[in-house]
Amino acid sequence: MAQAPQRTQPSGHAPLDAQLPGGGWPLGAMSEVLLPPHAFHEWRLVLPGLARAVAQGSPGRVVLVAPPHAPFGPVLAAGGLPADRVYRVVAGPHQEAQAAWAAEQALRCRDVLAVLAWLPQTAPESLRRLQLAAAQQGRLLWVFRPEHRRQQASPAPLRLWARAAGEAQADVEMVQVHVLKRRGPPALAPVLLPACDARLLAVLQAQARRRQSAQEAAQHQWQQRQERLHALRALGVPTELPGAVPPRGVESLHALDRTSSARA
């Protein structure tokens, strides 16, 4: 008997959808995402798909279980996910079993669109229960775990390993996504995705161009002032001639550039 095709939700990343069975995140199945320590690639991966589901009129809440950091509502809203659709379940560092239980209960709630659970040390039997609940209810389910767990067996039909790519492309930081497990043939090569959303990246690039233009204009004014002062001194006109210190405006712009570079 032929198996029914997997229902999916497009991820919003065309290169990734090309590698995912059915062309998107599986509905009714666990998607396990393995991450390096202190990495925050999960929202880059899942937010476009969640935003698309909301835009298509899919009802229900998005439940975050034990996220390491509270979500920033304006960023989610800018990505297309209204903050009033997001619920957060807080769990302590030694409450992994309770967090897995909360995720399972959320999957069984009628008014839930998707569950995102951060479960670094959950036992395999808890993962199997989550996979079963997602299959029974047809929900979107992402479980985020440390990358060192990739050598362990998992009940998730889809397993991804996301990490920073070694080199940027056209000055854009990239995320390298390895498809470790999927239905069908194995993936032969990782998928490269921009680490920053295209819309946010466009805003940042526009800001950088404006800063650069303002810096160049201030530098040009400073050079003109220095030339006038040299000319006056050549004519014997008394004047104070500062040394190689640029005016205050140029200094602040250089400092801003250094701060921006340090943050990037």
Question: Would you mind describing this structure in some detail?
Answer:
The protein has helices at residues 14-17, 42-55, 73-78, 96-107, 124-137, 198-234, 248-263, and strands spanning 8-9, 25-26, 29-35, 61-65, 86-89, 112-118, 140-146, 158-164, 174-181, 191-194. The protein starts with 7 loop residues before the first strand and ends with a helix. It has 2 domains: 8-195, P-loop containing nucleotide triphosphate hydrolases (Rossmann fold); 200-263. The longest helix is centred in the last third of the chain and has 37 residues, at 198-234. 39% of the residues lie in helices and 20% in strands. Mean pLDDT is 84; it is low at 247-264. Helix 4 (96-107) packs parallel to helix 5. The chain has 264 residues and is an alpha/beta fold. Strand 6, helix 5 and strand 7 form a beta-alpha-beta unit. The protein is elongated, with a radius of gyration of 25 Å. It contains 7 helices and 10 strands.
